[in-house]
């Protein structure tokens, strides 16, 4: 049996996110909140170094959704 984790639309308030999409949501929340990364990590219960590693890893991925300007008609 193969287990595929479900992608949740929210980030848990305590503990570590399970999938990259949840880490991306957490990084977006941090950027939009005005909180420092350290403060947000403390609030949600994740390690600062782990958060920074994921944020760096995710920033190296190209955008998944194409923009309207790049769509061909």
UniProtKB/TrEMBL annotation:
NCBIfam families: IS66_ISAeme5_TnpA. This is Transposase.
């Amino acid at each position: 049996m193969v287990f595929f984790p479900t992608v949740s639309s929210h980030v848990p308030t305590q503990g570590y996110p399970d999938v990259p999409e949840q880490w991306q949501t957490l990084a977006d929340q941090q950027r939009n909140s005005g909180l420092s990364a350290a403060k947000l990590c403390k609030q949600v219960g994740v390690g600062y170094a782990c958060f920074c590693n994921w944020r760096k890893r995710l920033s190296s991925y190209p955008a998944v959704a194409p923009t309207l300007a790049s769509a061909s008609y």
